[in-house]
């Protein structure tokens, strides 16, 4: 006789939406229940996919949404526009064309000067800035590790309490099942005795009528 599964297959929890719509949500005791072939077959035929979990997340910004959509389509990112860094010659010999080319040359020269200035500042202050940044990141990492340790300890405590509660519930359910089995057997015995008495009573001769 296969072991009975201590579960309530008709119990639904939460709102049925997204990939949960139309699915049977099982309230089981995983620490004491055994994964029967029926449940294995149900898991193998489930229509839920890993990507369905992301469908219920709140919408991101337009940039992130467009980026995710482009990645799903397999598209490539747009190349950088370097046309504004070009220094084309005047299109004609007019004063306006030469003035535009001259203004563009001044802009490009100022841009190159700014790049040189930034490089000089990076050479002078970059190492100290990076060391300070690395120290800040190291402090942040240590803080996150401490928070992660606290969360892991709390999770372990929750899992332990849940396991103890389920084991206790399993013992209680086993006792109730044994009581049910004994009562059902006793009821069958009483029913059989009643049927036997009724059959014996039916075989008795009827009382004479005056």
TrEMBL record:
UniProt keyword Coiled coil present: yes
Pfam families: BCAS2
Primary location: nucleus
Domain of life where this protein originates: Eukaryota
Compartments, record wording: Nucleus
Keywords: Coiled coil, mRNA processing, mRNA splicing, Nucleus, Spliceosome
GO annotation (BP), single: RNA splicing
Keyword Coiled coil tagged: yes
Coiled coil: 134-193
InterPro entries (alphabetical): SPF27
One GO term describing the cellular component: Prp19 complex
Protein family: Belongs to the SPF27 family.
Protein name: Pre-mRNA-splicing factor SPF27
Organism: Prototheca wickerhamii
Higher taxonomy: Eukaryota, Viridiplantae, Chlorophyta, core chlorophytes, Trebouxiophyceae
């Amino acid at each position: 006789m296969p072991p009975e599964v201590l579960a309530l297959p008709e119990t639904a929890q939460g709102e049925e939406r997204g990939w949960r719509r139309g699915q049977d949500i099982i309230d089981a005791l995983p620490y004491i229940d055994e994964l029967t072939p029926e449940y294995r077959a149900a898991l193998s035929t489930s229509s839920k996919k890993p990507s369905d979990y992301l469908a219920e997340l709140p919408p991101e910004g337009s940039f992130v949404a467009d980026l995710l959509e482009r990645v799903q389509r397999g598209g490539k990112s747009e190349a950088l526009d370097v046309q504004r860094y070009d220094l084309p010659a005047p299109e004609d010999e007019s004063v306006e064309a030469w003035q535009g080319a001259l203004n563009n040359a001044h802009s490009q020269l100022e841009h190159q000067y700014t790049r040189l200035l930034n490089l000089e500042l990076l050479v002078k202050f970059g190492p100290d800035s990076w060391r300070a940044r690395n120290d800040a990141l190291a402090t942040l990492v240590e803080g996150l590790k401490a928070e992660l340790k606290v969360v892991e300890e709390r999770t372990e405590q929750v899992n332990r309490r849940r396991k103890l509660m389920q084991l206790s519930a399993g013992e209680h359910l086993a006792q109730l099942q044994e009581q049910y089995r004994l009562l059902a057997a006793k009821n069958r015995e009483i029913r059989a005795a009643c049927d036997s008495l009724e059959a014996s009573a039916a075989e008795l001769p009827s009382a004479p009528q005056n």
